[in-house]
Design a protein that fits this description.
Immunoglobulin-like; 5-stranded mixed β-sheet; binds copper (II) ion; alpha/beta
């Protein structure tokens, strides 16, 4: 494999980022997760996201209703509660920090349907 000079690589990266910024691209990122089929849990316990607009989109393959919500640093935004086969989505603009994502259905977060959302 040919070695690219690190300086060239950095120049290419800067050029790419510059182009995206000029084009006005918004970095709204969607992080997909899923509720457990059989437990009061999500399939992930930690999500890392970039600051700005953050979207969590949770699939629900369980026979119980579930939803996705984000709280912390004065925010508490809840997505819809959905039944089996549905998808609950929540979008929040977040600053750097550690937040909690959780299921807003009564008792579910306390039973384990929660995790850490680390925004940097
Ligand atoms: Cu739930």
């Amino acid at each position: 494999m040919p070695k690219l000079a690190p300086k060239l690589l950095i120049a290419v990266l800067i050029a790419m980022v510059g182009t995206l910024a000029v084009a006005g691209v918004v970095y709204a990122k969607t992080y997909r997760l899923s509720a457990s089929k059989s437990k009061l849990a999500f399939n992930v316990t930690t999500i890392r996201a970039s600051k700005g607009s953050v979207t969590l989109s949770m699939a629900n393959p369980s026979s119980l209703p579930h939803g996705i919500a984000i709280k912390g640093h004065g925010k508490n935004v809840k997505g819809k509660t959905v039944n089996k086969g549905g998808t609950s989505t929540v979008t929040v603009t977040l600053k750097k920090g550690t937040y909690t994502f959780y299921c807003p259905v009564d008792g579910h977060a306390a039973a384990g349907m929660k995790g850490k959302l680390i925004v940097s």
